[in-house]
Amino acid sequence: MSFPFFYIVLVIAVLISVIKLKRQKPSYLRLFFPYLLMNLCVETFGLITRAQGKNNYWIYNFSTTVEFGFYFFIFYKTLHNVFVKRAIIFTSFLFFPFCIINIFFIQGIHHFHSISFLMGSIFLVSLSVLYFQEQLREDEQITNPLTEKMFWISTGVLFFYVTSLFSLGLFELIHLKNPSLKVLADALLNLLNIFLYCTFIISFFIGNKNER
After folding, report:
1. CA distance 57 to 174
2. Is the link from the previous residue into 26 a cis peptide, with omega within 30 of 0?
3. Counting runs of H as helices and runs of E as strands, what totals does the chain give?
4. For the chain, which residues score pLDDT lower than 70?
5. Whose CB has fewer CB within 10 Å in the chain, the N or C terminal residue?
6. 3 φ, ψ to 5°?
């Protein structure tokens, strides 16, 4: 069984998150270690089951749902706007029960939950944009964004979910069966994962000046 390059990058990200664990501030960013470790376990299971020709949508359905929860929490802790924080809480109360209903009763556990994935992706893209807007409106002197952990994290999340709206969500939603398109979608997803994990790795090496 061969390992795709994004899997190797993920392993590196997990190792660096462990090495830098105690230095991650604010402290909630330390949750990246268990989050990345979960991803590693899921991707390992996915590679094994895919090689065996077994359906593994169910584990990705649950792992991506947890993933949305993780990012919602990170942005909740990062953003200052009280209205946005309340919107995250309100959306969470509606979104996650819908994910469970969708996975079990609408699209099914053995089919990718593209409907709820699209909804979560749109919300995460919105939160990422709000983060950048908030940074531009800060009253304090503008610092170099490249020296901020959340700049890299938000950049990775924004780029990943904007693009994956097309590479994953829409392809699944309209049930395209063209093998060439599926291969293209898989290749694009691998590139997106590489970019996302690389932005996380960069953030692990950065110390925030404005720790909250």
Report:
1. 17
2. yes
3. 8, 0
4. 1, 139-142, 168-182, 208-212
5. N
6. -105, 125
Distance CA 95, CA 113 (A): 13
3-state percent breakdown (helix, strand, coil) of the chain, nearest 5:
80, 0, 20
**Could you tell me if 178 and 127 are in contact, meaning their C-beta atoms sit under 8 angstroms apart?**
no
The CA distance from 36 to 16, in Å, is 11
Q: Where are the domains of the chain?
A: 5-204
Which residues make Cβ contacts (< 8 Å) with residue 114, sequence separation at least 6? 107, 168, 169, 170, 172, 173
**Model pTM score:** 0.92
Give the C-alpha separation, 158 to 82, whole Å.
21
**pLDDT tens digit string along 74-128?**
999 999 999 999 999 999 999 999 999 999 999 999 998 989 999 999 999 999 9
- Evaluate whether 161 touches 125 at the Cβ level (below 8 Å): yes
